[in-house]
Amino acid sequence: MPVTGVKYDHELLKRAVDSVMSEYAADVERVRYSTGNDWADEPAVFFRVLLKDPDRVFERFSSSEPRKKPLMDLCLRVIEKLDAELHEEPYFPYVEFRTVAEQDRLRSPEWN
Amino acid sequence: MELTGLPRDLLNTARTLLGCKEPTEATARRAVSTAYYSLFHLLTEEACLLWTVPEHRSRLARQFDHRRMREASEACARECSKSSEVGIARLCRVANAFVRAQQSRHKADYDRATVVTQAEAEWEVWLVELAFFDWPEVREQPAAKDYLFSLLFRER
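YS: structure for the whole thing
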């Protein structure tokens, strides 16, 4: 049953973003978010994480061991940090990643 | 335990799509969608294996509902996030991966208002790969079996 009338704690969301930025400033250019419902009409927050170094995205791409992919590990750490900050909130945190090079090409306003 | 069969083949297909010679947004979208279905079939197969009559399993497999599976996965992830056990943390990651992969699959298959980039598809496929990596380590735990049960049956 979809949850209605959820109040988003924007102070908490901002703190979650700040905690990612303070820990991963070397790799993360910025984090934006928006709130809304997901495909199942459940409350959600959609984080957009812009990564600094596009050359690292495909680094060690051919490795068969998922844990060895450094950039993917970075993404996982970011997502786990956001999960930890928000795990008691009544909305699900979704996280998208994009590189600076991709955003330079696409110029999506919601990522600026 | 190595995961084989349709779920693994679908995940390999997602990876192949990402690594194709001329990647496009279409291959990225198909990779994301295919990765979701690999995890969907992994979990439904595993749930059906708990049913003791093999002849019933293929019919049972058709009873799964994406929305119910999302609800159950979010509930499992929330419950698991309270635990500090490593095994439970891995189960939490599998359940979270399912919710995220499902949302991404909807975006990839239906949402033309946004772009699915190669980096995003890489991340989404990797997230499912990680779930495949984690699942064999947790599948025998009672909490994992409860999770599989909850994918199909709602608490009353």
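YS: worth flagging: The mean pLDDT of chain B is 93.
IM: good catch. Also The domain at 6-152 of chain B is CATH 1.20.120 (Four Helix Bundle (Hemerythrin (Met), subunit A)).
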